[in-house]
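Pasting as-is:
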Amino acid sequence: MTDNPYIQFLKLSQALTDKEIGQELDTTAIKFLELITISHAKDKQLTVSEAMALSYIGSPATMHRKIDLLRKQGWIDLVHKGEDRRTKYLAPTAKAHKYFDSLSKLMAKTWVKAKP
């Protein structure tokens, strides 16, 4: 067993992810959800078109399936800005924020335990 705080955090976060997400999402969908949430936090929400072009995550068909999956499972919403109804933006839902808040608390707990 290691005392490395980061390894401890990874172990605990994996357990939390298994508990809160379970079989709902695969690894690709979780990474995509993280990217959507980071972009949203930077106030640079991804459009559906931008997401479809993220070839390092998956093909456009894969990205389309992940958007549908995340939306149907309640992790993201498709939103419009202003009067332009043609462009759809990806935004994390309260469910996603709750998950990331849980991870944040877990990280803080791990950090406190690691301090000398």
